[in-house]
Amino acid sequence: MEQFKYLVPILTYQKPVQEEIKGRLKSGNACYYSVSNILSSSLLSKNIKIKIYGTIILPVVLYGCEIWSLTLREKCSLRFFENRVLRKIFGPNRDKVTGEWRKLHNEDLNDWYSSPNIIRVTYSRKMRWAGHVALMRERKYVYRLLVEKPEGKIPLGRPRRRW
What we know:
This protein is mainly α. The protein has helices spanning 16-34, 36-39, 46-61, 72-90, 106-112, 118-134, 141-147; strands spanning 3-5, 10-12, 93-94, 101-102.
């Protein structure tokens, strides 16, 4: 099979990480649009909206992120998604000098959003998973994959990307 879905992650023969991240972002968009009216509401405080983002939307996007090897393109798409959600949460901002409404810049979002960004969260989850694997016993397959050295000759040509 070229592609199949096991539980939630999509495993493909070619480009497994890119396809998985695209699928996670699609699920995150569906979740985001289901709560977008809550995130744009003026009745809720910004802290509650950030908690909604952290408990509902972010886990959907970051499910299985421990196995991702992120390239610059995937980092940009994840940051783009997060900035779009944060712009919805914080809403437009009135400029103090001119008094006009304007869209928030990325620097403003980073200043107002005190939690670590989505890229740092993925890296911290990777490190936490690596710590769990390091504490496993030798009979576990995951531990053996991480620790053991492959036998045989290395094929000629460009090496494949690894985690």
